[in-house]
Structure formats: C-alpha cells, structure tokens
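User: What would this chain look like folded?
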Amino acid sequence: MDGSTTDDRSDLPREYPEGAGADSIDFAALDSDDETVLHAPRDHWDSYAILHSEPPERRRVEGDYYIDATTGEVISDLWHGARDYRNGDTYAYVQPADRIPDHQPRDEWESDPQFVYDDATDAYYRYDPHYGRIAPTNVGRHTDLLEAYDWEATGTTTRHGIDVVTYRLSDTEPNDSRGVPAVEGTLKLGVEDGIVYAFDVTLDAEGEPRYTYTVRPETFPDHDWVETAREVTGANGA
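Assistant: Here's the prediction, encoded as structure tokens.
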C-alpha cells in the first residue's frame, strides 16, 4: 500500500470517522452509513478501481471493479476473462469462448437464451437495456475479513489525496471462534467518510493466505465491447 505511515501516536488525528477510534474500529458502525465504497470516492476522483487479491480457493468477491465517477458506469473484471458492464438500467456481459472453463460446457452457453454467440469475436454476449434495479455486489463485504480482529491506529497519511488513518493489528487472535489467527495486517481508513481504502492482511491458515484490497484512481477501461453486445443481441432478436 502506498503512502507513508508513522508509529508516533502524537501524529494521530484528534477526530475519527464515526465508529473508529485510536484503539478500535466498530465495523458495524462504519457499515451504518449509506455511503459505500462504490459511491463515496466520487467526491475525490474522476474514475477509480476497486482491486483485491485473495487465495483462489477462498474467493469471496467475484472480480475487480472500475467506476466512472462522472457517469456512474461500472465495469467488472470477472473470473475466466469475463466482463460485465452496468450503467443505470443497462447491463452487458461478455464471455470469451476460449476462456470458458471445463466445468461450463459450451452447449450450456449455446442453450442459454440470455446469451448470443458472435463468431467474429468468438465470444458470448448479453445485453439488456432494461435490467432493472442493479443487485448489490458482494464487493461490499470486503471488510468482513477484518472484523474478527482488534486494530490500533499508528498514524495518519494522505493516500491519493485522501486523508486516512493507518491501522495495524493489535491482537492477532480472532474475537470470533470461526476466525483463524492472523500473522500481520494493516488497513487505511478514510478520515472523512469511514471508508476502508486499503488493507493487507495475512492469516495463519494453510499456506498463510494473504488478502489485499485497494481503492485508487484508475482510468476507466475501454468498453467498445458493450456496443458489440448491443448489436449482436439486437441482430439476433434477443
């Protein structure tokens, strides 16, 4: 994670976001705010990404997110090379045929009425201009991993123009019996909005799995394929 930190407690802020303090974070209180990480950074950046890594066998979140802060458009990089696009009621999805995993036979895609195959790009597309209310994504659960542990503030810094408090694990033993001991961990909490902008935590489990998470300015990706999805599905009467 970028940005400098300090262990000098005299550098700690006098005020913390609701639900946080120098020696603890109440994640339930942070979640009480209607703002989410999908929306709050709009005040700071023209476009941004929500990126994370986690052990493949323990994945809880389905992809990396890129958000155009001006239009509200969202593109998700999903597993197996797929992407989906959301903008208001409009929804599009593309799955490159050569990235379809073995456990999803091609005939399942061929028989699915929601998708249309395009030979020119060797991909399956979905396009729906009236998708309705966008269901919340499970990227909002990114703090679940952190809630089982105790945290202490170590200093303040500025991260991509955002004032944040840096925390580190103060007790590696989980408070929840369902959790596992942690090896080490840090997180960055937005002073203004109580948003977790980054974390890096390693758990003392098989292979010491490491989880990382970051929200940062990022150029919104090219999405010409959305127009291809519209044209392909329209030509096929989908």
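DSSP finds three helices and twelve strands in the chain. If you want, I can go into more detail on any region.
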